[in-house]
Task: inverse folding
């Protein structure tokens, strides 16, 4: 909303997930269709583009059950843009079966096919200084990349089911992973670097066309995430790392039986001792990405 002498003037926007943008490659991205959408919003006299979380999708392919509250979803990295930069060739991604159901994302095909394509792009990427700079400026990345590398090596099991030294983040085990999988860690840096670069360009394009972007922050994070693996002391967990209680909401007009979300609850008293450092870092990251933030659901914080 725009400020006025009475407080705020009415303004309007439209909610559209990035995943819902048109694409021949299985799922919407930060490419030309995203800019066409911004052009439409501008021509229609809109002020805002509201999206849902841009984080990697986890259980159930839901952005509200993500592997990380800080990382970006590699599915949104635009392949045509990588081709324009000389990192891909058309035949390496245009002939892939990304799914044929109109109006729906085939997440299984996107999951299986997107990583091999991005690894081809990574093999041609030579700007090591850019990756080093990205890693240095994003302290959350170390635990996210380790989590993703280990998860892949552990058959994509939830981290609570990993081998004990990895589950407990024992220094010797983590040091071995860093050494043996250094190239895979840099691949994840490449994905996140490209995500940030492409999103920042799209965000700047939107702002230049008088469109502000409303981001969405789920109040809770997924149990199976780098966030809980790294900071398990900040969550209400048993000694085996499974949750003591989980999130949900009581019955209301939307759901007669209420909802069971299943996320672990925070130890707010422990967070208070750190000045809510984890939450502050999460908010800073999101304010770097968006113009306005929607906290979903603030009712949980208020209570």
Result:
């Amino acid at each position: 909303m725009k400020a006025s002498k009475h407080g705020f003037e009415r303004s309007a926007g439209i909610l559209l997930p990035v995943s819902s943008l048109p694409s021949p490659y299985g799922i919407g991205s930060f490419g030309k269709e995203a800019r066409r959408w911004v052009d439409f919003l501008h021509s229609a006299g809109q002020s805002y583009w509201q999206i849902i979380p841009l984080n990697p999708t986890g259980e159930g392919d839901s952005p509200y059950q993500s592997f990380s509250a800080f990382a970006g979803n590699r599915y949104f990295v635009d392949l045509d843009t990588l081709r324009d930069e000389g990192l891909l060739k058309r035949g390496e991604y245009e002939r892939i079966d990304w799914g044929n159901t109109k109006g729906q994302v085939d997440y299984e095909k996107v999951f299986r096919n997107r990583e091999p394509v991005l690894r081809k792009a990574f093999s041609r990427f030579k700007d090591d200084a850019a990756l080093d700079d990205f890693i240095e400026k994003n302290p959350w990345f170390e635990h996210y990349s380790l989590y993703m590398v280990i998860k892949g090596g552990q058959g994509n099991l939830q981290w609570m089911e990993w081998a004990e030294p990895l589950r407990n983040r024992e220094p010797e085990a983590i040091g071995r992973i860093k050494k043996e999988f250094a190239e895979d860690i840099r691949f994840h840096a490449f994905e996140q670097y490209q995500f940030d670069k492409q999103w920042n360009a799209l965000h700047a394009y939107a702002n230049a066309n008088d469109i502000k972007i409303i981001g969405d922050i789920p109040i809770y994070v997924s149990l199976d995430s780098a966030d809980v693996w790294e900071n398990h002391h900040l969550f209400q967990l048993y000694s085996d790392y499974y949750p003591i209680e989980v999130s949900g909401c009581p019955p209301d007009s939307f759901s007669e039986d209420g909802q069971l979300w299943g996320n672990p609850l925070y130890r707010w008293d422990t967070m208070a001792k750190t000045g809510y450092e984890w939450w502050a870092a999460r908010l800073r990251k999101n304010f770097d990405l968006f113009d306005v933030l929607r906290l979903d659901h603030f009712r949980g914080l208020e209570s």
